[in-house]
Amino acid sequence: MSIELIMRIAGLLLFGLGGLALGGELAQWLPARLVFNPLYIVIPATVLGALLGFWVTPWMTTRPFRRLREVIQHLPAHLLVPAILGLAVGLIFGVITAYPISLLPSPFGEVLPFIVAAVFGYLGVLVMTSRPDLLQALRERFGSKEVKSESPKLPAILLDTSVIIDGRIADICRTGFIQGELVIPLFVLNELQHIADSPDAMRRNRGRRGLEILRQLQEDAPVPVRLLDTDVEGVREVDDKLVTLARQLGASILTNDYNLNRVAELQGVTVLNVNELANAVKTVLLPGESFIIYVMQEGKESDQGVGYLDDGTMVVVEEGRPFIGQTTQVMVSKVLQTAAGRMIFARPANVTTPIA
To answer: What does pTM read for this prediction?
Structure first.
């Protein structure tokens, strides 16, 4: 039996007894000529009271507490602690103020103390949650010297789902180029879990890869990695939540999603794009420079060969068809920067002597 059904039954009995008492009083109050039998008043009042109690009791007991529990569960810790502290301080001031007010004549001395305590409690919560810097100021004023000498807080970097699944973030962290605290919001982790539970095999593998990358980051990353249980109310899309949360925390976003990159930049959020980083660290070659490359396959044109540098940059070798399957020295003729990355066009430096 659920707690809500128990409360409904209790409300049915209590409100039914109330209806019974009210019906009896009403039957005695009405003139005798209007009421031939008191049961005509008592029974309907009891039934109506019982039905009313069965219907409204959950709205007065279990459902408000359930809603309060959900609010507390989703409330960020950096707001919950100041709210509790503010409520405690406000109630203390309310109790101190309520005593002299209770000496007022009735009914003011009986009602006003409760109202004053509630108002001070509300003001305490309002002040502490709207001014979180007050808590920091109290910490600095009354904290120990060890607290004052803490190291500066690292900048927060929010990770999105795509960059976690991509996996290169683990290698980038190991190189030491990331200077900050990696933060994974709970809604990003939930999206990863949803992808990992997908019936589609490809999506399922991507989701599991993302969860494995997160495990590697927590175990091996030289920078702090933290899960954040903060949610963004009134926003449904994960990307929108990420941008809003970054604005609230003053954090940057690490991603390889082009659309998220542009949306975040339009809203003034700093974006660290893994693809842009990869393009920036690729080998820079200028027209006229020569290098050695292995020609792997044919190009789009009949006389072209195609090879790749160590960083994955495509090199199109004009007149390179005879050198397919061989290593040869080529000279850069031009370099093109496209949306997909950098592409190098070259010609064999010595068409007669391929390098074995």
So the answer is: 0.48
CA distance 284 to 59: 69
Per-domain boundaries in the chain: 3-64, 76-139, 156-279, 290-348
Please return the burial class of 344, using the count of CB atoms within 10 Å of its CB with bins 0-12, 13-18 and 19+. Answer: buried
Topology adopted by domain 156-279: Rossmann fold (3.40.50)
Per-residue pLDDT of the chain (356 residues; tens, 9 = 90+): 677 788 888 888 888 888 888 887 877 777 655 555 677 778 888 889 888 888 888 888 888 877 777 776 666 666 677 778 888 888 888 888 888 888 888 777 788 888 888 888 888 888 877 766 666 666 666 654 444 444 456 788 999 999 899 888 888 888 888 888 889 988 888 898 899 988 888 989 998 998 998 888 888 888 888 888 877 877 888 888 889 888 888 889 998 888 888 888 888 888 888 887 877 777 778 888 888 899 998 888 888 899 988 777 889 999 888 888 888 889 998 888 766 667 889 998 865 444 44
Residue position matching structure tokens 């502490």: 128
Q: Where are the alpha helices (DSSP H) in the chain?
A: 3-29, 39-60, 62-74, 77-102, 108-130, 133-142, 145-148, 161-166, 168-175, 186-196, 201-220, 238-249, 258-266, 274-280
Residue 81 identity (one-letter amino acid): V
Give the CATH fold of the 290-348 domain: OB fold (Dihydrolipoamide Acetyltransferase, E2P) (2.40.50)
Beta-sheet pairing, 314-317 with 305-308: antiparallel
Kindly state the tokens that stand for 356. Answer: 């074995």
What is the sign, positive or negative, of the torsion defined by CA atoms of 133, 135, 138, 139?
Answer: negative
Q: What DSSP string runs through 140-192?
A: HHHS-HHHHTPPPPPPEEEEPHHHHHH-HHHHHHHHT---SEEEEEHHHHHHH
Q: State the distance between the two ends of the chain, measured CA to CA, in whole angstroms.
A: 82
